[in-house]
Amino acid sequence: MHRHITGFSNPTVKHLRSLRDRKHRRRAGEFLVEGLRLLEDARASGRLPRLLVKAEGRETHELLARIESEVVAAGGEIVTTTPDILTKITGKANPQAVAGVFGEWDTGLARLDRGAAAIWLVAQDLRDPGNLGTMLRTGDAVGAGGLILVDDCADPFSAEAVRASMGAVFTQAIARARWTEFAEWLRSGEGQLVAASLRDAVPYRGAPYAAPCFILIGNESQGLPESYEAACDLRVTMPMRGRADSLNAAVAGAVLAYEVLAALEG
Amino acid sequence: MHRHITGFSNPTVKHLRSLRDRKHRRRAGEFLVEGLRLLEDARASGRLPRLLVKAEGRETHELLARIESEVVAAGGEIVTTTPDILTKITGKANPQAVAGVFGEWDTGLARLDRGAAAIWLVAQDLRDPGNLGTMLRTGDAVGAGGLILVDDCADPFSAEAVRASMGAVFTQAIARARWTEFAEWLRSGEGQLVAASLRDAVPYRGAPYAAPCFILIGNESQGLPESYEAACDLRVTMPMRGRADSLNAAVAGAVLAYEVLAALEG
Predict the structure, then answer these.
(1) What is the pTM of this model?
(2) Which of A255, A259, A265 to mutate to test binding with chain B, by most B CBs within 10 Å of its CB?
(3) Which chain B residues are within 8 Å of A261, Cβ to Cβ?
(4) Fewer CB within 10 Å: C terminus or N terminus of chain A?
(5) Does residue B106 register a pLDDT over 90?
(6) Which of A213-217, B124-128, B195-199 comes out lowest in average pLDDT?
(7) pLDDT given at position B199
(8) In whole angstroms, what is the distance from residue A14 CA to residue A6 CA?
(9) Residue A25 shares a structural domain with residue A86
(10) With an 8 Å Cβ cutoff, are A134 and B239 in contact?
């Protein structure tokens, strides 16, 4: 279906605009992705927007034309509108010429196939959407199965997280859980839980990693609660040669993930 | 010297506020750091603010009292003011109760002691201040000597970079240079230049790293120019198991820096 929208007070415009707020995203179960590059990443990962909104009067890029026809074939909607309305929707003075609305996904712990990948990333109470997006990007790079969000994490479907993921958000399974729920699920099958820690830890280099390996990264300022660390199968520590006693959360996750990858692939 | 300021149009207020702009920071050679934690990090690294500005009518924390007396002893200035004026200065609705003005430093290539550390980080055209700050933090963690900013990088003294560095900005030497200047300086002494690359590269794991090792990280979207890569002594590649062909710049730098650290300390 194709529509042309020129009114600022059109309900679709209001709805798309509201997706900038986390609350509205959760309620609608949808999020907005800006720009052809991310839309093409989504398509390549088998995800199509339900609705595509684009600036009127522009020549259609070949990649966009393909996405459009796939969206229409899948029963989705194409909306053309004015640059001003795109600005209103995205909140940016110079928005990209196209954006898409995707349904959120939450694979759910029960539906994660833990045997499908050797590495899984687990974020606990991570508050910075940029860090979450970077973890998704790293997860894609190390061939992780997905990202499990434990307790109160930032929204992986926020514009900032999606952008920081560089499209990896579309390749990674995402599941949300409280800690007890996660711990119970983890122990219902195979899996090694590893945390970067300063307590009772072994050097991260050469530690006895085993697949499927769940790499647990804690909150940016508090780190992991002590009881969560205690529940891990392995606590590892990275050299800290300077004044600081910790790394950026996404950096710690990446250094550890690449170490685990090297260890498991021997 | 102590002063109390209550007027929004006070020249000191205007000056402090102007430090939110890069242009003004460069002209004044000064930057503003918010919060007791970062100020204490600075003090512990031997750096004191020239001027300390704090909210009136608050009880003075023990750490702050020590910084204050050291600032005064060093000939600096203590300014008390209203919360509203602190809001105006920092641009934040809920600013921290204290901020300090520091002189910027640029060690300059000529004054870098390359033998003083086994690892040096080099950022080329890195535009995200958060990435720069994260690289400073990682540099501190791996015991790097400093961060060399090649070509047009973001400002390491911006509030965002300083915050992301978690105080590591105060421990790291910082030098700025154009590429040709950097290349000339590098070849005037010992030093191995290493880039993460997809071209003609060897696996990053087990590559023949040598101290002092200069780890070169390129622009977030373009990567390194081909000629810069060609000028490197070693091009290494990290596994990319997913759809993406690159890592976040600060993440790539960290994974590589920890690998170099392990190799050199073997």
Answers:
(1) 0.93
(2) A255
(3) 239, 241
(4) C
(5) no
(6) B195-199
(7) 81
(8) 12
(9) yes
(10) no
